[in-house]
Amino acid sequence: MKQLSKNDVEKINTEIKNAYGKEDFFDKKDQLVIKDFEHALFILKDKQPMFFYKEGKPIPTLKSLLTNQFLKTATVDMGAVKFVSSGADVMRPGIKELDHTINKGDIIAIVDEKHKKPLCVAEALFSGEEIFQMKTGRVFKNVHHVGDVIWKIDS
Predict the structure, then answer these.
(1) Angle, alpha carbons 38-40-45 (nearest 5°)
(2) Rounded to 5 degrees, what angle do the CA atoms 84, 25, 33 make?
(3) How many C-alpha atoms does 95 have within 13 Å on its Cβ side?
(4) Residue 50 φ/ψ, nearest 5 degrees
(5) SS3 of 18, please?
(6) What one-character-per-residue DSSP string does 72-134 give?
(7) Rounded to whole angstroms, how far apart are CA atoms 83 and 122?
(8) 3-state class of 154 per DSSP?
(9) Is the CB of residue 126 less than 8 Å from the CB of residue 144?
(10) Domains along the chain with CATH numbers
(11) Which pLDDT tens digits describe the chain residue by residue (155 residues)?
């Protein structure tokens, strides 16, 4: 584990802004550490994992999104909740609402229709417009879900 400098925090904020358009996610006074766990790098704030890196891109954790949800979303019906929150990819028939500005490759939050709570962080396999036109098939790849290794991290 390595304590991050103010310059490191600025660099991470720039990465987050470039990836998600969210400015100054972390304050320069935040005490952040970077931790290598299960062959991945994690950014921890107050011992909670806030982001992890996948292919060089910072991906927000569900714990981070529970306090600050800034990703585009797709809403699934309640029948899909058990599967998605257990790690299944998201199939087109389960989607109830969709942000049409999603681009292929975007990292988004999948939320349930009742509570709008994030169930998983997923990667779009198609654009929002393409998904809207589809009737069947896998449309989002589950990257991080409740109860997985990332969810269970604590320092």
Answers:
(1) 105
(2) 85
(3) 24
(4) -105, -35
(5) helix
(6) -EEEE-HHHHHHHTTTPPEEGGGEEEE-TT--TT-EEEEEETTT--EEEEEEESS-HHHHHH-
(7) 13
(8) coil
(9) no
(10) 2-67 (3.10.450.120), 73-145 (2.30.130.10)
(11) 788 898 999 999 999 999 999 999 999 888 899 988 877 899 999 888 999 999 889 999 999 999 899 999 999 999 999 999 999 999 999 999 999 999 999 999 999 999 999 999 999 999 999 999 999 999 999 999 988 988 887 64
What sign results for the dihedral spanned by CA atoms 18, 19, 20, 25? Answer: negative
Is residue 12 within 8 A of residue 6, CB to CB? The reply is: no
